[in-house]
Amino acid sequence: MKDSKNSDFAGWNMLSRVRQEIFGCSMIGIIIFHICRTLLDMKDKKAPGYKFSWIYDYLVSSTGVEIFIMLSGVGLCYSLHKNSNIKTFYKKRFFRLVLPYIIFALPFWIITDITLGGHGFGKVLEDFLFISFYKKGNRTIWFVFFIASMYIIYPVLFKIFTYRKGLEKSRSERLRKSIIAAVIIILLYGIMLILKKKTPNAYRNTEIALLRIPVFIYGAYIGEKVYHKKMISLLDLLLPIIGIIMKMILVMDRADNKIDIERIFNSRLAAFFYSIALMMILALILDMLRAADKLKIFRKLLSITGKCSLELYMSHIMIRHIMIIKLKSKGFLNHLFIYIVLSLLLAGVMYFVSRFVEKAVVPAKRTDIKHDTKSDIKNGTTPGDKNIIKNGEKHDIPDGAVPGKK
């Protein structure tokens, strides 16, 4: 039997094998970006770490968000292939995302808006329900609203991009899905250009989410390629190559540090394509390390970070926001160790509380399914192995639709 550890090397399936590690890398990249932006916004060129922040912002910037979003689309594909029940799909998303937000975001907004800000409860509701995101451009926890919206529409995308039965190996079917994805993404950008001209204020407030929708669409599209273990074609390399070229142009173009609505659009588009290149490079490096069985502890730490990445995203944003209000930017940067420790602790609490509530509300169902060990071994699996056997094809299962979800 072919060694699964080295099979499909450098194919799309490598994203499945090292998905949690890439999630971990993207989350670490997002945290570093937020620290760097805080330092750069102070405009103190003599401050320690300013040069590193400047280089990081130019070369990496917020592309960790794009990678996170793309991989979420891939994970959702596996989730619905594993269990096509839509009710179960939404229930898992609720306990994974909405529940932690309700439990932790409401106290967060009470502290920031009432205790520290001196506002009334109306401001709390406005922020908690994301009304201020649309009206005033309050982006503090914008990602929760964005990814929840993507979860809602994903089952439709799953139907659009799933290969038709019996045509999983057809090149024409893959080309058909590529054309559909391209048309959807181009139409979305066309709509956003119209919104940018007709409603510039609303667009400016929400562009951080609007311009990430095509990224999620792309993640949903490549999910099928990853699931069916397709090889990376020359056509697949076109967007990342364009992204690298666009990034180089923008780096040179940003020399005057002028940021306007046109440049924001261009930079988000470049970040989309550029992040595909970074994701592929990360996947290739991590898959090589996995195949060589190197840096086990490092990869394990990345994997753990990936499993808790959604909680870590919310926790580090909340802690950073409160610390900057209390200590200002300079005080925040002087207490980075405390910031990291508190973010990790809060993420851990979020992780375990959400799972405790989920288990309490939805008790595990008993199953009478018995494993036929001989049959499992014949099919290349063992009892409890995290694989799907479908149409005689073995698929690795990344844990669900968001980091760490089973």
Distinctive features:
disordered N terminus; disordered C terminus; 406 residues; 72% helix
Q: What is the CA-based Rg, rounded? A: 22 Å
Compute the separation of the termini in Å. 28 Å
| Percentage beta strand | under 5%
Query: Main beta sheet, described?
Result: 2 strands, antiparallel
Report the average pLDDT across residues.
86
Instruction: Give the helices and strands as they follow along the chain.
Output: HHHHHHHHHHHHHHHHHEE
Strand order of the largest sheet: 1-2
Q: Report the structural category.
A: mainly alpha
Write down how many β-strands occur, each being a DSSP E stretch of 2 or more residues: 2
Characterise the protein shown here.
The chain has 406 residues and is an all-alpha fold. The chain contains 17 helices and 2 strands. It has helices at residues 14-17, 19-41, 50-59, 63-82, 86-115, 121-128, 131-136, 142-161, 171-198, 200-210, 213-227, 238-253, 261-292, 296-307, 309-334, 336-361, 373-378, and strands at residues 387-390, 393-396. The protein has a two-stranded antiparallel ribbon. The two termini are 28 Å apart. The model is unreliable at 1-7, 366-394 and 397-406 (pLDDT under 50).
Protein topology:
Layout: H1 14-17, H2 19-41, H3 50-59, H4 63-82, H5 86-115, H6 121-128, H7 131-136, H8 142-161, H9 171-198, H10 200-210, H11 213-227, H12 238-253, H13 261-292, H14 296-307, H15 309-334, H16 336-361, H17 373-378, E1 387-390, E2 393-396
Antiparallel strand pairs: 1-2
Helix pairs in contact: 2-3, 2-4, 2-13, 2-14, 2-15, 4-8, 4-11, 4-13, 5-6, 5-8, 5-15, 5-16, 8-11, 9-10, 9-11, 10-13, 12-13, 15-16
